[in-house]
Structures are given as structure tokens and as C-alpha cells.
Specification:
Layout lengths: L6 H16 L2 H10 L5 H9 L13 H28 L6 H22 L8 H26 L7
Helix pairs in contact: 1-4, 1-6, 4-5, 5-6
Length: 158
């Protein structure tokens, strides 16, 4: 019996791979050291590293621990929210509709994950949460097409 990858499964795996690869501490550090933010390639690489995660804080301070927790939770929530959005919306999605659904799922999931985790940071505010949600939606806009392209490889679950 052949197993078929669903739109939701393909999009969730694609998102997890993007987050695990580009959000890892060595890649983030490499991008920050070896690319320029005022050039297209460097800017795009910085967008891809937005849902960063790490195993431990750099300096051990309380603020650093909060940042670490917020970053790690944001990366996990991004993957979870994409999975939920795709599971709900991918019943009949295929082709172009799967592409758009996958792309939109990343935009919405990244904004929501950033908004929620903003309240973990020191001195949280609604303004900070909205600004971080905007950064999350920018990640989704410019990286979500990759997930959209991956979702096209899945089959509708319905």
C-alpha cells in the first residue's frame, strides 16, 4: 500500500525544515557575519533566519533567557500553527489553491506566533507584540512561498 503525503503533511514538514535549518544558531551566526543587510541576498537570508532557535543563552542573563524562551517557543508555535491551519484548510486544496493555502498559512502562523511570544519578553507591551507580529508576517510573505511550493506536492485529504 503506497502512502500519500497530504497537503497539510507536506506543508508542515516544509515549515519544520525551514525553521530547523535556517533558524539554527550556526546558520543565524553565519548569515549575520557573512551577508550584508542592505543587499538583496543578505536581506533575504536574514528573513529566512527570523524564526531562530538555540539550545542555550549566550550570556546567561535573565533577559537572555527570556529571549531564548521566546525565540524557541516562537519557532515551535510557527510549526504548530502552520500544521493546524493546513489541517483545517487543506481538505480539498490542490494545485494553485494548495500553494496559496501553504503560503498564507505561514504568514498567519508566523504573525500569531510572534504576537503571542512577545509577552514573554522583558517589559512586554501591545505595541511590541504588534511590531513583532508585523515582522512575523514579513517572514511569512517572503519565505511562505517556499512552503506553498512544497504543499503543491501533497494530495488533498478529503
Amino acid at each position: 500500500m503506497a502512502r500519500t503525503r497530504t497537503v497539510a503533511g507536506a506543508g508542515t514538514i516544509g515549515t519544520a525544515l525551514l525553521v530547523l535549518l535556517f533558524g539554527s544558531q550556526p546558520i543565524v551566526e553565519w548569515v549575520n557575519k557573512h551577508t550584508q543587510p542592505d543587499e538583496a541576498f543578505g536581506w533575504f537570508m536574514r528573513v529566512l533566519t527570523w524564526p531562530r532557535w538555540a539550545f542555550g543563552p549566550v550570556d546567561g542573563s535573565a533577559g537572555s533567557m527570556r529571549r531564548l524562551l521566546a525565540d524557541d517557543l516562537r519557532a515551535l508555535l510557527l510549526i504548530l500553527f502552520v500544521a493546524v491551519i493546513l489541517a483545517v484548510g487543506a481538505k480539498t486544496a490542490s494545485g494553485v489553491s494548495a500553494f496559496i493555502l501553504g503560503w498564507a498559512a505561514v504568514i498567519f502562523a508566523a504573525a500569531l506566533a510572534a504576537f503571542i511570544t512577545a509577552f514573554i519578553l522583558a517589559d512586554p507591551s501591545l505595541l511590541t507584540a504588534l511590531q513583532l507580529a508585523a515582522a512575523g508576517s514579513a517572514y511569512g510573505l517572503f519565505a511562505g512561498w517556499i512552503v506553498g511550493a512544497i504543499t503543491v506536492t501533497g494530495k488533498a485529504a478529503g
